[in-house]
Automatic annotation (TrEMBL):
It is a multi-pass membrane protein. It comes from Maribacter arcticus. PROSITE patterns: ABC_TM1F, ABC_TRANSPORTER_1, ABC_TRANSPORTER_2. This is ATP-binding cassette, subfamily B, MsbA. The chain crosses the membrane at residues 20-43, 89-114, 178-207.
Amino acid sequence: MDYFKKILRFAKPYRKYGYLNIFFNILYALFSALSFAALIPMLDVLFDKTKKVFEEPKYTDIGHLKDYLQEFINYRVTAYSGDDEMKGLVLVIGLILVLFLLKNLFNYLAMYFITFLRNGVLKDIRNKLYKKVVELPISYYSEKRKGDVIARITSDVLEIQHSFLSVLELIVREPLTIFFTIIIMFGISTKLTLFVFIFIPVAGMIISRIGKSLKKKSDDVQREQGEFLSIIEETLGGLRVIKAFNSESRFYKTFSESTKRFFNYSNILLNRQNLASPTGEFLGILVIGILLWFGGKMVLVDGTLDASSFIAYMGLAYNILTPAKAISKASYSVKKGNAAAERVLEILETENPIAEIDNPIEQTSFESEINLQNISFKYEDEYVLKNFNLTVKKGNTVALVGQSGSGKSTIANLVTRFYDVNEGQISIDSNNIKNLSKKSLRSLLGLVTQDSILFNDTVKNNIGLGKENASDEEIIEAAKIANAHDFIVSLPKGYQTNIGDSGNKLSGGQKQRLSIARAVLKNPPIMILDEATSALDTESERLVQDALEKMMQNRTSIVIAHRLSTIQNADTIVVLHKGEIAEQGTHAELLELNGIYKKLVQMQSLSA
């Protein structure tokens, strides 16, 4: 029930729809019971048992309500029909039709209003999940599979709607239908109704025992669904590699093993769930059978109950079966919903380790320097950076070079605060970046990575990501600085051309120049270039390098370089080795040292 309460918090904005649903469900439950009770006068007319009443009865007290209603109906039938029994029959049939019409009208209105609540909660949970997914740090997704996260936002949230939110409809309607029906059953025969109550706890115990293992089975199904969605996501992302290495059969085997497990888990779950309905129905019919025996004895032998009341009573008893079955199925749904809610709430309640302080500083400009002071950082157990110190003055270009795994990209991740340092601090203009709002920190930074991350949208919208509501002129100017304008205007629809998933309709160099244009449009004072040219051919590299040099003019830049020829003009080159600074200086100074940097330059010259 804890998960149920947490999910119900999302229903607060839609509570007016909940109240209207409850109101119409009360009316539905009342008229559902009355519609069966109205069978008694009809049967009395058919069996010629209607007592002639010529004077309108007087209401005395609640204790005699049943007798008053019976007398009043008989009075109306007598007054309307006179000696024509068919007129009386038409009257009571009309009464039954009106009651059933109202019952179904109120049922529709109750479902109409709960629809807004259910879909509203579904929308809000998905929105909150998406917002949380975007807010959580990049480190979170190194542990979670993307497909599993997608499964939680889609199928798990849908399961919550089908289970928990379906129960909202039943909380009022079905118990009240049973309640009103039982009241009328007591009014018809107290003895017979008490006899029914002996069997209800027994039926409840049997149904309860069936549902105990449903939560675990449902958890297995949803976890496995996340597994095969992850395989689909990885397959689509790496389709070229899969085809190039003839690995289709290997991935198919992994996927089919996952779907086989899903098949087995689903069979167990659904068969256990499907047991609820026939079990509930059989137990209900068993009670009806016993009622027929006991009630028939009261009619035929004891004479304590008339036939028309007994037939109506049986209709009322059967009227309990449908809501009772719905409640038993709802208990299974809640157990299934618990597993889905647990997975959804696990994301929503995950603490973000990259948290902002209360009242963070909103820094809007960069004035003097970036200072990395005695920073140490580890992704897991081993430190990637150890007691690292670096100062980047405003207007300077600092290049970071070194072997793979030396910690170059880690510095970019720490300055942008995708990760937080374990020790030491990073400051901008003497302000610790942990004290800045994440939005203001990242508004000071522009990022161009080795992998051009573009979106399935137009060229214009991909560049415009750098600045909200940018004009066409600003976008074109940014594209020109990035050496991208010429190839863009040659595309079929120019700036309105859709570039496909991840920009796959473009070449590597074209994608990279769009990434640079996006950073140029943002116009940040600090630029971080993470191996922006390492994956390009010579011609593309020349165009991109030219674009980068234009972009870095009058800006502070941290350049992570793989090709050393691209950073020879940097103000400072820092050579990293196993997370520490091995050498530092200008290109000429480092060559004179005759150390690691010179060896790297010579190795690249030979390979070229």
